[in-house]
Specification:
Strand order of the largest sheet of chain A: 1-10-12-11-13-16-14-15
Structural class of chain A: alpha/beta
Oligomer: homodimer
Largest sheet of chain A: 8 strands, mixed
Order of helices and strands of chain A: HHHEEEEEHEHHEEHEEEHEHEEHHEEHH
Radius of gyration of chain A: 24 Å
Shape of chain A: elongated
Distance between the termini of chain A: 36 Å
């Protein structure tokens, strides 16, 4: 009898599990089919990149993107759409930069671009000085006075043998962020930084830098130079350690400007006070159209809510899409969203960010406790048909990260990362860098995971 | 005592296993580092695509590629390098094709390309006829006489909701291969086929077709038309079912031509009579440079042997790289290699093919028995750090497939497949479609798996 009882329990449980599982796999299949056959993400991305274009915080284009985002979300039939005001930094590149290496045979043009937040070179004639090549800010600290009067050339490449390119980025980006501050402190007159790029090419990669609390008068101009020009400069310095470099840039920081996060909500049917957020950042750098960074994340996040509607899935919990403003040079949008959420005591149980490009999705990185992670791992088999296999610990994103608590789940989409730094913050981050299917697979993958969180909640 | 004995056995086994495992993971790390930091695959691919270019069987370029391949393999310090003669089909496209749709408003140019093996349109004036649109050869069989005097337009799209794009290709390619044969049998005067492409664009995709045993006089010309032109033609036919289409092509089949497989061997130290093959195909279509198809597979296969040499791993078994000739329109090279292997009673225990593009490697598809598959699955954890996760049953490749026996392991590299059919058999299959890192990761992945087969053998 006892044996039979156990058998019964086993069979019942098994059947219940199978049915749930079947329901989930059916719903997930619906998301993928709808995204691949009838998706809207690529059409949105085409408009955002080609009709609006680059949209640096504080720019007219950023404002256009805000209006476009609100308008498109309003068409989706969500329960609420609104703008959340936030003050953002306002920096402009000015006229195109010029630069060259002074070699014994003459000037060799070097493709450069000012780093975001940099000051201009002084006067009409730009800056010319001898170059001192280093691998890190630590090396500059050690050199101290030896950098005085010179242009410090940070030339540490991204580490090509790291499989995950974001780790290689993490290992190299410190020289971009802190390079000018540290070099300036020791009397350097400028800082140029090898582009954060695993390829050798002619595109300089911009990105944010910081002077910390350096007084205005002591700020030195800083720019990224292309990887090929970095190699060239390195070779010249091997032959002639007194090689000089010239650059001129007219960038400028203006007073903070008003802007907005754009928010849409599908209100939950059962637990409306539990919030699930999905988002990317609406701002981009100014050199191109911000297609991979982060137009892709924006349209994927919008597509998640559209897929919920199109497949007829009504969420139990409140699902919000947030188009964050100013991730690139301040994260003011992410901080403000979290501040208001805290102020209103909104219970954010889950937040997902897509800000690693629109390439083929491989999985996610989760910032959560062990119990929630164990639950997530149980869902892994549901994703196998879609070749989604990375369920890593750690991750999240610079916008949703501000929502992190001890109990909730903050996570980020992890697309294939091999090509990302070919485009990141360059003049070639355009629509044609994004593959429609890869973008659509990402959106469906995000919708599927948020569906599971919505249905089962967190622990 | 007994208890202690078991403990001892357990500990010993565990240590032995761990050491082996550590040795393997160390060797695999060496392959990845060498490929990513000091690889030769991309340099080879640059030469093969940009200095040699398209290399259709029987062409002068195909012969150049043979000589280049032999020359490069000879530089690697292998034990043997040789050419294996094989007669191949020789078809030429002739002058560029022309085509247009006759609409009520005038002619609309349609990008087309003759399918490999097609006859030319007759006479100087090309072929003009009314169009009948179908979805399959089966539909043409059912229509029978209704297609007489018409151009049959096969317009079945690849199925976008299939995650693995090769499955979508498999589901659509029948109309390309058999379309003209079946249409001609029922009196059609020409056959045009929607390109095997998941995107909407202006590039026609060529590929092989067959007339079967159709007598020469009854062969009708056939071409691929771009997906955008297919959509346009479809719309015209909705409005006007008598819409006519014009095309002209001057392609021609010549007598079979002499060519070669290029083979290099690292002779095994312990079991020289057990052969492990790695290869891709050296020929390509003529519209572009054959970068993804299959320049990538060629240079990855060559890189496998170079990585063995560079990392100082001396194989126990004989490892052969085979640059197969004529995969695209005849597979004569693959068949001849297998025929000679059979004749010489060479024991081919393992064969790996890379012919699915040089995109980020995701894993492999194995054609083998259960016992070997179980062994392979044990190696899976060794690949986790490299994000290699697909260990599928089934697969192999059209060249190495001829080596298949009941006992051996035939398998194919499975790269990410989302972008592959954007380029396949088109004018844009050029070097810039290949990402250096993705290519290098594929080569290292192949080397790692072949190292394991070499070290442990098969069951």
């Amino acid at each position: 009898m006892k044996k039979l009882f156990y058998l019964f329990v086993f069979v019942t449980t098994s059947v219940v599990f199978s049915q749930t599982d079947k329901q989930d796999s059916t719903q997930i299949k619906k998301f993928y089919n709808a995204s691949l056959l009838n998706g809207k993400s690529y059409q949105w991305l085409t408009h955002l990149t080609q009709d609006i274009g680059g949209r640096l915080s504080g720019s007219a284009n950023a404002q256009k993107a805000v209006e476009w985002g609100k308008n498109e979300l309003e068409k989706l039939g969500l329960n609420k759409v609104w703008l959340q005001p936030v003050m953002v930094p306002h920096w402009e590149r000015g006229t195109k930069e010029e630069a060259y290496i002074v070699t014994k045979k003459g000037r060799v043009t070097a493709p450069i671009c000012a780093l975001g937040g940099s000051v201009a070179t002084k006067g009409r004639n730009g800056l010319m000085a001898e170059v001192i090549e280093v691998q890190s800010v630590k090396e500059v600290e050690a050199l101290g006075e030896k950098v005085r009067g010179k242009i410090v050339f940070y030339n540490r490449p991204m580490q090509a043998d790291l499989i995950r390119t974001f780790r290689a980025y993490g290992g190299a980006v410190g020289q971009r962020f802190n390079g000018a501050r540290v070099a300036g402190k020791h009397g350097a007159v400028g800082a140029i930084v090898r582009s954060m790029n695993l390829r050798l090419d002619d595109y300089p990669h911009t990105g944010v830098m910081s002077y910390g609390d350096t007084p205005d008068a002591q700020k030195i101009p800083t720019a990224a130079i292309s990887t090929l020009a970095s190699e060239r400069l390195h070779k010249e310095l091997q032959v002639n350690p007194n090689t000089r470099f010239y650059f001129k840039q007219s960038c400028k920081t203006f007073p903070d400007a008003p802007s907005f996060n754009v928010i849409g909500e599908l209100t939950g049917s059962t637990f409306p006070d539990e919030y699930i957020v999905v988002g990317g950042h609406l701002d981009s750098w100014d050199l191109a159209e911000g297609a991979q960074d982060d137009g892709a994340g924006i349209v994927q996040s919008m597509e998640v809510l559209r897929l919920f509607k199109e497949t007829g899935y009504r969420p139990k919990r409140s699902i919000r899409v947030v188009l964050f403003m100013n991730e690139e040079n301040g994260s003011r949008g992410g901080k403000e969203y979290a501040r208001i959420a805290e102020e209103k005591k909104e219970n954010h149980i889950v937040a997902l960010e897509s800000d690693a490009g629109g390439f083929t999705p491989r999985g996610f990185g989760f910032n959560c406790n062990d119990v929630n992670y164990a639950q997530i791992l149980k869902w892994k088999p549901l994703f196998e048909p879609y070749l989604i296999h990375v369920f890593a610990r750690g991750g999240g994103g610079s916008d949703v990260g501000h929502l992190n608590t001890d109990d909730n789940v903050i996570f980020g989409l992890q697309p294939d990362s091999q090509r990302y730094f070919d485009f990141h913050h360059t003049a070639i981050d355009k629509l044609d860098a994004v593959n429609k299917r890869e973008l659509e697979l990402g959106a469906a993958t995000m919708a599927s995971m948020l569906y599971l969180f919505d249905k089962y909640g967190i622990k």
